[in-house]
Amino acid sequence: MAEKSVYRASTTAPVNIAIIKYWGKRDLALNLPTNSSLSVTLSQLSLRTLTTASSSAGYSGDSLTLNGKPQDIQSSKRTLACLSHLRSLRQALESVDSSLPKLSGLPLRIVSENNFPTAAGLASSAAGFAALVRAIADLYQLPQSPADLSRIARQGSGSACRSLMGGYVAWRAGSLSDGSDSIAEEVAPVSHWPEMRAIILVVSAEKKDVSSTEGMQTTVATSSLFPVRVQTVVPSRMDSMEAAIRNRDFSAFAEITMRDSNSFHATCLDSWPPIFYMNDISRAAVRLVHDINRASSKTVCAYTFDAGPNAVIYYLEESSELVVGTFKAILGEDINGWHGPFGDRLLSVTEGVALEKLDSRAISLLKQGVDRVILTGVGEGPVSVDSHLVGETGEILSEAAT
Amino acid sequence: MAEKSVYRASTTAPVNIAIIKYWGKRDLALNLPTNSSLSVTLSQLSLRTLTTASSSAGYSGDSLTLNGKPQDIQSSKRTLACLSHLRSLRQALESVDSSLPKLSGLPLRIVSENNFPTAAGLASSAAGFAALVRAIADLYQLPQSPADLSRIARQGSGSACRSLMGGYVAWRAGSLSDGSDSIAEEVAPVSHWPEMRAIILVVSAEKKDVSSTEGMQTTVATSSLFPVRVQTVVPSRMDSMEAAIRNRDFSAFAEITMRDSNSFHATCLDSWPPIFYMNDISRAAVRLVHDINRASSKTVCAYTFDAGPNAVIYYLEESSELVVGTFKAILGEDINGWHGPFGDRLLSVTEGVALEKLDSRAISLLKQGVDRVILTGVGEGPVSVDSHLVGETGEILSEAAT
Q1: How far is A293 from chain B, CA to nearest CA, in Å?
Q2: Distance, in angstroms, between A226 CA and closest chain B CA?
Q3: CA distance A209 to A229
Q4: What is the domain class of A6-192+384-401 according to CATH?
Q5: Which residue of B141, B222, B324, B355 has the smallest Cβ count within 10 Å?
Q6: How does the average pLDDT of chain B come out, rounded?
Q7: Quick one: pLDDT band at residue A1, thresholds 50, 70, 90?
Q8: Does domain B196-377 have CATH number 3.30.450.80?
Q9: ipTM over 0.85
Q10: B160: distance to nearest CA of chain A, Å?
Q11: CB–CB of A262 and B269 under 8 A?
Q12: Mutating which of A209, A265, A270 best tests the B interface, going by the most B Cβ atoms within 10 A?
């Protein structure tokens, strides 16, 4: 029996961290949001998903392997929706060009690995679905633009649509009921404001009480403060944030980022039953960011929290001394994360704000509760790569072996 | 030189804990609130302020002694406003009845003691100003009703107006700019629903970061979610809460109480900079209350938090086993507060919800973070007493000596 051909394409995709938060779906099946959102795509030097999509008549059925573990693809409606959408686009190509191999009819083998621990509580689903969609689109040689593909990735995980582009990315909520206008859009490329940096304080977390999907539904259904966030607060913040990015105005960027994070967590607290993602360590980080800004007599850093206790703190390259220097002085040299990408250039950073100017209780909480840091910055969208996680004969490889 | 007469009157006044929260002033000088609020007056067997007001030509000037410490009365605009208002009412009486001693012209000596540690972070200013106003009104033999006096006490401390009455008390925000319609009103007397109980979990607190007065101003000025709370959420909850009290519907009472506490803290978090009063221990109490209700298959308890981390948990006498029994099992017999008023009848309470049905992390946090409990229940308004903190010749006495 002749060996069956194995078609492959691989991509990496980035994590993104919202500065105007996505929270609330107006359509559960299509993952349509109640409001627009905006994020910074983070550098893949620090955090990324590597995904290989492959097709072969020799495969026995669609499969997905994530960090070495086979996933139950048939029970994931969201994954199936993405695959089916991508297959139909390939089929359209094949139907007008009979010279193309009929990949749309072949089983898919998808293999994906994150370069960061899933346990760290970092939103890996955004990078994961962005990589999955991008890799299959490449395998199928689809002509669709990143914005078109964002419509598909959105159905996998809402925020995944923002990981299909680099730099500063908006997800327009849209208003059509089929979701065709609910897509990602680049607000500004990396090159417009390349100095944006972030330090992630990874907080030792208990298992999350309430998943994002469940939490959103609860907030939409029960919070009496939520409608004003959706109708008034976020639309106005989207405009101000786009202006802040356009003008490279870090002070405005920072205030809107922090206020929007607080607003999102306020609507969680106002849900019934209430939802808490921030804990005392998170609040210590909030306190220290305000203290560092006060001590610096200008806004040099801004916190934001997703559906978990980790603090993501944005700052500009020029404020590395003040921001990273201070957190290094608090957390100590020995903590995991000062080395590696974005670490080299910060190794010499040792002086921040004098610790006497900061809340001592917050310092002590942070020391106790932060396990590791991740240094990163604004970065590019998905990148095609030659490191495949599926071998030439279809075997699954681990990243270490590629 | 003839000994000068000393006129005296003493009263005790209760603490009240709001179930619809007062947060936000529309007029700072007059202490006029942005929204109506509603509270349960707590039994003076557990918590109360004892205040003696006295007048004598032999005194050298107005003075106030609180828990043995002389206060700087001249720097407290709020106290001066109350004294001046009460004096003018006395003067009106004296002007129509010349047989009355001219007390309005005499210096006042006011001595006040709480029967609970100020450090416990319990709202003592409400009981304090209610007792001050009631004691002076008694000294002056003023004919004004508690509602009339509530208008004066409100100027001392907003929530004090609700401590001039027992049972279930509303503070109507009013709409007049002179505040004359911003007064307290009894929604229902103790006798209407005497079974209401509360356990206060006193959480080891750091010094409060932001005072209530400052916090309120920040929220009013900066929170974009706050206006909807004031305009829509609270008015509708006031109606539902009054109905719940009228119908003695604990399940409705509990849900509104918890949701309103969460809503208030959500607007604090949405303030700029954000304000946090609840901590991880507070959140553990929230979690356990929800768990106890779930395990009981009915709503048997309800949390509420003021501007601090202490949890006040309301329950009905009939649910003592489930509620107090559970907290006793968690916190242990040895913690301060199981004995004394409301403790005697609960000494035999030992069985609550099985601890396996509750979140183990929340149990462990509560054990670590709760210093003492206070057992109490709905109670009466201020009571005239014969235990004076000022002797017959004007000397200051301590309560232990009376």
Answers
A1: 12
A2: 8
A3: 23
A4: alpha beta
A5: B141
A6: 94
A7: very low
A8: no
A9: yes
A10: 27
A11: yes
A12: A270
